[in-house]
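Sequence in, structure out.
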Amino acid sequence: MVNLLGAGKSYDTSKQVLKENQIVVHHGMGASETRFVVHRVEYQQDRYIYHLINTETREHHQTDLVRPLHEKFGIGMYYNAQQLEFMDGFEVLMLYSETESQTDAKQESQQNEQADQTETASRIVLGNFIVVVYSEKALAVFGDTRPIKEELKALGGRFNPKLSHDGVKKAGWIFQKSKENELRNLLTIK
């Protein structure tokens, strides 16, 4: 049961008021209206959940409260109880397919962005040097380190002529992660 104090009404969400393929309209601020179609009705935890697709943007939404239009009071989802409107089932299926494609593309884009951010976070360019998170406990330094090899040794670094970096074997220095701040200081000074 949902109580809307401003409207002075209560709505029983354990009763189904919409069917699949039915059109509902979200009335927003001002005179804005957005059309949705119900692509699935689900009963869970003593209430009906309506899975909706925005007919313009193809985005997924869900709600458990949709009110009759003749009881309109404020912003919310409404259906016309006097003149029910439905979309063809095949059209709804096509919309759903489009939303899934959009969702998959969006998720792939977000994963790529996160991977780029992780790669950027695990690789730092300091002057002519590249510092890479080499493992859970180690950092690697690549670049022309000959002029500062004594300082790198003094920090506890170990030279290795066969480290892997960007899929290629390269010479570099390995350090414990605990030396990161000292390493940054040294490499930014040089």
